[in-house]
Amino acid sequence: MMTAKTTQKIAFVLLGLGTLLLVVVPILLTILYILVNGGSAMTWEFLSQPPRNGMKEGGILPAIVGTVVLILGTMLFALPLGILSAVYLVEYAKDNFFTRLIKLSVVNLSGIPSIVYGLFGLTLFVGFCRFGTSILSGALTLAIMSLPVVITATKEALESVPQAFREVSFSLGATRWQTVRYCVLPYAIPGILTGTVLSLSRAAGETAPILFTVAAFYLPRLPHSVYDQVMALPYHLYVISTQVPNMPLKLSFATGFVLIAIVFLMNIASVFLRAHYRKKKTW
User: Fold this and answer.
1) How many domains does the chain have?
2) pTM metric for this prediction
């Protein structure tokens, strides 16, 4: 008869194998397939030059720059508002019908299709606010789409901090903001980073919201202001894969690999930041 410890080891081995075979291996094979088919197009010219000859020659530099600018703009708008909203809901707001309604709305907003956010951005930012089809409209639209994930992740990270930390801080005469600033937020940062990277990764790969608010079909130059249109990797990948006849297939795979690489680098950076802040945890 197997002991409980042996059963536990077998269960862990089976779970590990399942994760490896059903999650890790398919992802690695997909990346390998993309790299094999697009590796020949991955040159310095491809990464550093604008497109030419109807996007069949040259590179994707404007699309890379446009994607990075949109990610930074999304982070600039979504992070402060999302984190402050979560801090208010967890640390300041009373538990009543109004706050419960807000929390339910935030959860429901996470499931809205991205195309709806694109139409909302088109109506509000492009039309009503008269920002036009621009980086500003695109970043604001992506920020609104990212807010529910940032708020939810930050809220859960704040709630995971032991209540005893707050009680000790209050007993020493600290104000509520001092307690949040010095006793809660530093220990919630790893969870906040996780939610932030997830939301930004989703924003980096979205096509529908930027299709209505910022993306240009063919614009072989870099932006000069927040009111300019830009090319972006997700929309550029869609265009060269479906709208441009006789496009070399290797360019589509190479563009997809660059987009995956940007998201991968963001996740790697977040892993190191989370590890850095987790070292400071004493509980």
Assistant:
1) 1
2) 0.89
